[in-house]
Amino acid sequence: MQKITLFVYGTLKRGFRNHDNFCKNASAVEIGYVNGTLYGTGHGFPVLCVPPGSILAVGNRDYHAGAALQARVSRDLAKTELRGSVKGELISFTNPEDILPIDRLEGVPHFYRRVLIPARIESGRVLAAWAYVMPRPTHGATVIESGEWNE
What we know:
The chain is an alpha+beta fold. The protein has three helices and nine strands.
């Protein structure tokens, strides 16, 4: 069975306003970490910026191909190490097309971009996860020093 995993760090996390509406079909949710910088926008959602070198692929509307790519890259990452400065959740879906409404919510590709990046789960295993990122923070955004958004 093909699955797709997202790294979420804002309103899609458990207990936040968009989780129940957009993640109800999730098959698993785990704490995870990625490298990058998290910014507070002051508008009720954060922004994640990641180093360009950590982007493994850019997502498109072929969700099944994206899930297959994610599985292949995850196998290659399995023996790497990653500390991760941003804390969020890794949310998995058994139907890759379940992320289409999330792409719409996130304004892909006009607001956020969905990219494949390395992520670490708490057990230490590293895998590839799709994340919604921006190339630079929005105007007036401030760094969240803790690396975890909790507004």
